[in-house]
């Protein structure tokens, strides 16, 4: 599976795929060691000139062309969350290196409440 786009799911035909899950760190470890041994991983070779995936849910396209990934909006504009949701379904494998996009579980970083500022006093005894 060198230079392939990997997804977890089923591939009923050559032109159709059903994605069942998103790759995570554990999947990346498995794929980097022995990618062909696991039946739930399916690959789309990227050595072709171009790969286009049509996404039914939002009528958009996902293109892989010359080592770049491109998402083309369909009838309605995609939100940032929708775009991340599409990209996080895939991993890219190149020889024994695996890359995937992961969205952090934290939606927002909380700022810690500042403690009251301390008053610092310094003095020196001066003899006259």
Task: Give your account of this protein's structure.
With 128 residues, the chain is mainly β. It has helices at residues 25-33, 80-87; strands at residues 4-13, 16-21, 41-45, 50-55, 60-65, 68-72, 91-94, 97-100. It has one domain. The protein has 2 helices and 8 strands, in the order ββαββββαββ. Strands 1, 2, 3, 7 and 8 form a 5-stranded antiparallel sheet that branches. A 3-stranded antiparallel sheet has the order 4-5-6, with no helix packed on it. The mean pLDDT is 76. The longest helix is centred in the N-terminal third of the chain and has 9 residues, at 25-33. A hairpin with a 2-residue loop joins strand 1 (4-13) and strand 2. It starts with a strand and ends in a 28-residue tail after the last strand. Helix content is 13%, strand content 36%.
What are its keywords?
2 helices; 13% helix; elongated; 128 residues; 5-stranded antiparallel β-sheet
Order of helices and strands: EEHEEEEHEE
Q: Number of domains in the coordinates?
A: 1
Shape: elongated
Helical content band: 10-25%
Strand segment count: 8
Major β-sheet, in short?
5 strands, antiparallel
- Termini separation (Å)? 86 Å
Count of helical stretches: 2
Low-confidence stretches: none
Strand % is 35-45%
Q: Tell me, rounded to a whole number, the average pLDDT.
A: 76
Q: Rg, please?
A: 24 Å
Q: What is the structural class?
A: mainly beta
